[in-house]
UniProtKB/TrEMBL annotation, chains A, B:
Binds 1 Mn(2+) or Fe(2+) ion per subunit. Binds 1 zinc ion per subunit. It comes from the Bacteria. It holds the Pfam family FUR. Gene3D superfamilies: 3.30.1490.190, Winged helix-like DNA-binding domain superfamily/Winged helix DNA-binding domain. Keywords: Cytoplasm, DNA-binding, Iron, Metal-binding, Repressor, Transcription, Transcription regulation, Zinc. Its main location: cytoplasm. Homodimer. It comes from Micromonospora noduli. GO terms for cellular component: cytosol. The keyword Magnesium does not apply. CDD domains: Fur_like. It is found in: Cytoplasm. This is Zinc uptake regulation protein. Its cofactor is Mn(2+); Fe(2+); Zn(2+).
DNA sequence: TGCGTTTTTGACAATCATTATCGTTGCCAC
DNA sequence: GTGGCAACGATAATGATTGTCAAAAACGCA
């Protein structure tokens, strides 16, 4: 018994949020995305934006970043495990993969007897187009 | 002229917070530390605990961790740049150094033209004493 | 196409860590 | 000593995120 339906329904709001994420370049907050939707004339509640983003994040369809002292930022990324190189001025983001880092983290954790290992890694800097 | 005094005054409250951090083993939140101080009979305001922790963090004397969906956690660490391997059950923390990771991050950033590079890295797992 | 069931929505209230206020306290250089 | 100025702290404010719950909308099925 039990699992009968994934029961994920197709709604106008969910599509709107997902579509918007498809067009956005960098990371954006829930509040930002909500404001953009409103300007487009899309009628979507803030609560729904939060819920949708959370769902997409849980499903691994979008990435979440928690910058120091700010709101959560969301972005549609390419598939597979990767990390972000972010401009701390304009937010321009580059996806970077580092197999060596991945294995290093797992190895270090194993050496100390830690199991079920995961990690977070973000690189910050000022991008070429943001002199000064 | 200019720099005359660091102007950092010695106060009973600052000493209390700093001393407490010296005895604590893992990471603790501002609210936790404040509660501990009160139980000891130390009379320190919550605002002051926040301010002191922030100051110590800015001065690089303590490390801050921002676990997903929780408060900021503080801990007195050894000197020098390092990262943390944290048990997501009990909080037991091991400091780890990874020169290879440091250079990798800098190299990747440089390749993309990013300057003034910094990074954040945390490894999570369940420690040996937290079976299951 | 109409219906019932179940999910989703969204306006609004609630949470809660952190920050801002601002009058009082007390450190410390002189 | 004492005056100036940093630090304190009770309290209010902030603000992102989450909880609530009645109403709206999907969708499987007839
Ligand atoms: Zn930039
Ligand atoms: Zn990784
Ligand atoms: Zn543990
Ligand atoms: Zn590092």
């Amino acid at each position: 018994m039990s699992e009968s339906s994934a029961a994920v329904r197709n709604t106008r709001q969910r599509s709107a949020v997902s579509a918007l994420l498809g067009e956005m370049e960098g990371f954006h907050s829930a509040q930002d995305l909500h404001a953009m939707l409103r300007q487009r004339g899309e009628r979507v509640g803030l609560t729904t934006v939060y819920r949708t983003l959370q769902g997409l994040a849980d499903a691994g369809e979008i990435d979440v970043m928690r910058p120091p002292g700010g709101e959560h930022l969301y972005r549609r990324c390419s598939e597979g495990h990767h990390h972000h190189l972010v401009c701390r001025v304009c937010g321009r983001t580059v996806e970077v993969a580092g197999p060596a880092v991945e294995s290093w983290a797992d190895r270090v954790a194993a050496q100390h007897g830690y199991a079920d290992v995961s990690h977070t890694l973000e690189i910050f800097g000022t991008c070429p187009t943001c002199p000064r």
